[in-house]
Amino acid sequence: MSAFSYSRPMDRVVHETHPGKVDFSSWTGSWMNTWAQSEGILRFTLRQTADGAMMFKASTNDPANEWPEVEIHPFAAATAESAGIAFKANVDFGFMDVDLSAYTVNGLIVIAVYNRFKDGSNRNDYMIREFYFRESH
User: Fold this and answer.
1) Is residue 4 part of a domain?
2) Cβ–Cβ contacts within 10 Å for residue 28, how many?
3) Vertex 100, ends 19 and 65: CA angle to 5°?
4) What's the confidence (pLDDT) of residue 19?
5) In Å, what is the CA distance from 114 to each residue of 9, 40, 59, 104, 137?
6) Is 59 within the bounds of a domain?
7) Cα–Cα distance between 130 and 42 in angstroms, integer?
8) What's the rounded Cα separation, in Å, for the pair 33 and 108?
9) What residues in the chain have per-residue pLDDT under 50?
10) 3-state SS class at 91
């Protein structure tokens, strides 16, 4: 089997100008779950650090159950574009790994949360998807 360096024609390395980092500045701020009774992520914030990294911090309906702040991995629509359209993140809670996959649609951020237990409890892993709107300032 021969190695290949792209899976789609747009993935090929070409000698042209690339836009650099994915721009997530339009996503920064606080976002609120459209379902106020959610037992998952009620709200989250996205912020950019001085070195340009994007950070995700989630809150729940239980103040004792705050999530740690984690760095996200942003994605653009194509290799030659810079506008952010999606991100992924991972949160390790010790007993459980949580993978987040988020994208924007019609002004909302949709987050799919994949929960994998690693504590030997034999609980089934599960996935939830929730919708978030930008909070007013």
Assistant:
1) no
2) 14
3) 130
4) 62
5) 30, 12, 17, 18, 30
6) yes
7) 9
8) 10
9) none
10) strand
What's the pLDDT score for residue 25? 85
Task: Tell me what pLDDT residue 115 has.
Answer: 97
Percent of the chain with pLDDT over 70: 85
- Rounded to two decimals, the pTM is 0.84
pLDDT by residue (tens digit) across 20-51?
A: 788 888 899 999 999 999 999 999 999 999 99
Residues in the chain: 137
- Asked whether residue 11 is assigned to any structural domain, the reply reads no
Domain that holds residue 26: 20-134
The tally of domains found in the chain comes to 1
CATH number at residue 127: 2.40.128
Q: Is residue 28 part of a domain?
A: yes
What token pair was written down for 110? 């949709």
Q: What CA–CA distance (Å, rounded) separates 126 from 105?
A: 23
d(CA 100, CA 88): 5
Q: Per-residue b/e over 115-132, b at no fewer than 16 CB within 10 Å?
A: beeeeeeeeeeeeeebbb
